[in-house]
Amino acid sequence: MGIMSLPWSLVLALTIAVVSAGDEVALLAFREQISDGGALASWNSSAGFCSWEGVTCGRWMPKRAVALRLDGRALVGALSPALGNLTFLRTLNLSFNWFHGEIPASLGRLHRLRRLDLSDNSFSSTFPVNLSSCVSMTEMRLRNNKLGGRIPTELGDKLASLEDALPDRTLEIADPTIWLHGEPKDDITSSRIQECLLSVFRLGISCSKAQPRERTLIRNAAAEMHAIRDAYLLFAGKRIGEHGAKGEPRLKTFELE
Keywords on this record (predicted)? Predict the structure, then answer.
């Protein structure tokens, strides 16, 4: 008997069973690569995966995982690329755990993903440029990891909040010539420089919106850049005076695309 002769309700039921099995397989693959200390004890075949700890299934797609919230569960390990198969996922929150290694490129397949929170882990390597393929993304939190390299410009237009996308290692990915005299000497200097960089990054994104009418006007951008520079130089001058250093502080020119 061919599939065309099957009742529509049976075909639909079979389809749902297949795709839901795919979500369960992806979740189990994720668990296989981590140590959970019992936090994921409910993740077993005796119950449907929609009832597992941290898993939320859709209202209209009851057999598809739409959210995975496992923040603060003391999970240890690497992220399985299988997470990229949870194609209905809208929220992924794995913050405040001990994940390490690279952020899988497969997460770029999550076109419905709106919120991604991987902050306060130990992810390393460069910024995951593949996440720019998550066309529905509005919130991305990657703070307190070990990510390096340049921030991909493709990420800027995807986010409602740039600050949430920047890690605490902003100082490491900036041009080193902006320092007063070598590396920042104290937490106050580091904090002020990072604040300056964040202001410039925000301005850069506001000048690079896809729609011209949404972009900051050139005269306003120039005025804001002058204000950022003046605030930085005022602070730098005070710090130089306090420590008796010589020379003139410099702020590296930022080219906005």
Answer: Glycoprotein, Leucine-rich repeat, Membrane, Repeat, Signal, Transmembrane, Transmembrane helix
